[in-house]
Amino acid sequence: MPVSVKEVAERAGVSVGTVSNVLNRPESVKPATVERVNQVIDELGYVPNAAARQLRAGQSTSIALVVLDVANPFFTDVARGVESRASESGFSVLLANSDESVERESIYLDLFERQRVAGVLVSPIGDDLPHLLRLRSRGIPVVLVDRVSADDRFPSVSVDDVAGGRLAAQHLLDTGRRKLLFVGGPQKIRQVEDRLRGARKAVDQVPGAILEVVHTAALTLAEGRVAGEVARARVRAGQCDAVFAANDLLAIGMQQSMLGGPDAIRIPADVALVGYDDISFAAAAVVPVTSVRQPSGLIGATAVDLLLAEKDLGVDDRRQHIEFQPELVVRESSAARPESTRHGTATAQLTPDGT
Amino acid sequence: MPVSVKEVAERAGVSVGTVSNVLNRPESVKPATVERVNQVIDELGYVPNAAARQLRAGQSTSIALVVLDVANPFFTDVARGVESRASESGFSVLLANSDESVERESIYLDLFERQRVAGVLVSPIGDDLPHLLRLRSRGIPVVLVDRVSADDRFPSVSVDDVAGGRLAAQHLLDTGRRKLLFVGGPQKIRQVEDRLRGARKAVDQVPGAILEVVHTAALTLAEGRVAGEVARARVRAGQCDAVFAANDLLAIGMQQSMLGGPDAIRIPADVALVGYDDISFAAAAVVPVTSVRQPSGLIGATAVDLLLAEKDLGVDDRRQHIEFQPELVVRESSAARPESTRHGTATAQLTPDGT
DNA sequence: CTGAAAGCGCTAACAG
DNA sequence: CTGTTAGCGCTTTCAG
């Protein structure tokens, strides 16, 4: 049923070598022959078998992108960047979803290793160095996305998450908040850790300001809703006047649960809220969410550039680490409290400080 | 550099056939040999070459999923359903994004045809029957997702979009709205057409009710924002008291632009809003959006089932068409207008009817 | 410019 | 239970 070069060759009265040349180097074949062969190809509906071609070439023409969560708009934006840049260079993109699971990440890396993809872009969960090193030793370049390798061994394109965390916290402090709550997790995700670290830096410089941490099991809307209940209690108890969520999904989920119910929390009157990523839904939330913006599409496109560079230059060249700076986008969720409202909790706010 | 079965065989002092057996039928090899070979495999870091295996097998172990828009949470939910069901059967999933472009859809279908994937799940834009038929004639089963084929030639899993459109419109009519605006596009997308058709059916049965249509270039947040401005003018002119958007992204985008600016429109006081898909952000929007829910994960999982069934039973068996029923989820965006507000436009509302 | 032939790495008979 | 061998479909020298 499936038609191969051989049949095309027979039918066109040429050899398989010539058919192959028509396909790959048509300029080196007599025009008349090219035409005749192409005609037969159409007639027979011949489609080259990628597996065979790849077997010879030793490598496929696809690059893989493994993300932490396809349901997170940030990553789909990155994926778009990757895809458009990759297709310009003739590569197609295989998108895989590790879902924040180390195991699934590993399964996909194995799969892509067996497939001998042309390269792997990965937003790794932990630091599965052995696995990544093995890919590379097999000639498959690896570029870390949205993450710098702990030990500088892989090229990477990332955003300064520590700076981003600091931006977010500083903004909250600047607008008069003092009891911050950081919400994020799992801790093994470097982005979460860095954003927290940045926030802590800002908080540590303001006397009397405190930073509590609530861990979540994942960076999703659903986890945000759960965390929202925790935050609600903290706010009600006067222990929290600002929340910094490790990403926008969490922030939006939290907002949803905090605003609901009979004991609704007001945002930003009772508590300020800042998220991370600036996904398009952040601006569309009940209370538009202040967020730390990352250049998602650019991250993806740049990652492809680094990958192609590594392919050309060879593995042992100097690794590049490209780091973008995040940007704070202020919206209503973190507006300074109107004096009237603010006053009510002002005393409680200053108490721990002894004032 | 890359190590093959041959080297493993040499090092373990066995033949390549035995190595292959250890890999694929270990029960038919003496335990001691299995162990020795496995040890060498680890030592050498051998990883089987998928291309070679596939070349022999004639087919890969991946199934492809081509969606209209990866940035649409509805499709990522479908993708999750596909992925989990596929992995249970040992298939991996290649996700591709046609981005509502016929051309890109075609490029991906070609790619997957060359890759001889085990099957293709596609949410087609138009009706590229020739392309799909060719895939099938090549032994690659095709299942339509979220869409019934015009001519019954492919198995499909879909949701009754006409019923969904009717549900939405009926709900708006039931809550007293009469001047409906349908927003969606491009028209070539069947889902859009069907939802409109359903809405029209409901509207046609209510004397005095009208349905206008605004076309959009895509089903995205950004397009929704544009359409929101159009709707704003219509509402202000008293020509519209309800909007039915073809999906939630549009609805949320519209809401965002209508609620903003100096001339803000109130939802649901001035206009009711209903979306489609019930993505998780719908409930989290400024005004929680009433939406028509589709069982997204189930759609994906079922599509995989049909695909595997077609593989087993052979192409010529009776095609299955599975159709789920949508469900209306009522939220604040379509609440009936409070009497006070409603009264203002009530006269205008009844005028066309002559009452 | 075209043909013949040698594999790429793997699996599936078929012998032993 | 294990070894030998013949391709899967393609590209790529190397001769003509």
Characterization of the model:
Two copies of one chain form a homodimer. With about 350 residues, chain A is α/β, with parallel strands linked by helices. The first copy, chain A, folds into three domains: about 5-50, lambda repressor-like DNA-binding domains (434 Repressor (Amino-terminal Domain), Orthogonal Bundle); about 55-145 and about 295-325, Response regulator (Rossmann fold), CATH 3.40.50; about 160-295 and about 330-340, Response regulator (Rossmann fold), CATH 3.40.50. Chain A has helices at about 5-10, 15-25, 30-45, 50-55, 75-90, 100-115, 130-135, 160-175, 190-205, 220-235, 250-260, 295-315, 340-350, and strands at about 60-65, 90-95, 120, 140-145, 155-160, 180-185, 210-215, 240-245, 270-275, 290-295, 320-325, 325-330. Chain A has a six-stranded parallel beta sheet with strand order 2-1-3-4-5-11, with helices on both faces. In chain A, α8 (about 160-175) packs across α9 (about 190-205). Chain A is elongated. The model of chain A is unreliable at about 340-355 (pLDDT under 50). Chains A and B meet through α4, α5, β2, α6 and α11 of A and α4, α5, β2, α6 and α11 of B. The first copy, chain A, binds a DNA duplex (16 and 16 nucleotides) through α2 and α4.
